[in-house]
Amino acid sequence: MAASGMRETSGGIPDGGSGASLQEFAVQLRRLNGEINRLVHGFAHGQGLHPTDVQALSVILDSAEPLTPGRLREHLGLTSGAVTACLDRLERAGHIARSRESEDRRVVHIRYAEGGRAAARSSFRPLAAATDSARQRFSEQELAVALRFLAAVNEELGDLRTPGR
Prior knowledge:
Elements lengths: L6 E2 L5 E2 L6 H26 L3 H12 L6 H8 L3 H13 L3 E4 L9 E4 L1 H10 L1 H11 L4 H20 L6
Antiparallel strand pairs: 1-2, 3-4
Helix pairs in contact: 1-2, 2-4, 3-4
C-alpha cells in the first residue's frame, strides 16, 4: 500500500481508489494518444512533414497570442536549430507564415497560413467527426466533467519538464 493510503496498481502506480482505477485511465489515455498519433503520422506523411512539424502546427493553432520561434522552442523542448528547420519545412509546405509585426523588427511571429489550415481541416475531419459522435453519448454535465479532467491532466503534464531540455 502506498504511504498516502492509496492502493498501487500492478505497475506500481498509486491508485486513489475512486471508481475507475488509475490503470484504466492510463490504458485509455495511451490508446487515445496512439489513435491521435496514427492520424498525425498519416497527415505528416501526406504533407511531406515530420510528426514534430504537426506537433508544432498544433501549438501554433492553439496559441492565444502571436507565437515566436523562441516560445515554440520552449513548448516543444527542441533546440533553436531544430525549430528553425521545422519552421522552414512548414513555411515551404504552405502551412505557416512568418512575419515581423511589432515595433521590434527582430521579433518574428508565426501564424497558421489559411492554405495550411484548409489542409489540416480536411485531413483531421475524421477526428472531428469521431469526437462529435462520441460527445453525443454524454450529457452536457458529463462533458463538462470530462473537459475539466482533460484540462487538469494537461495542466499537470505541462508542469512536468523533460530532463536535459
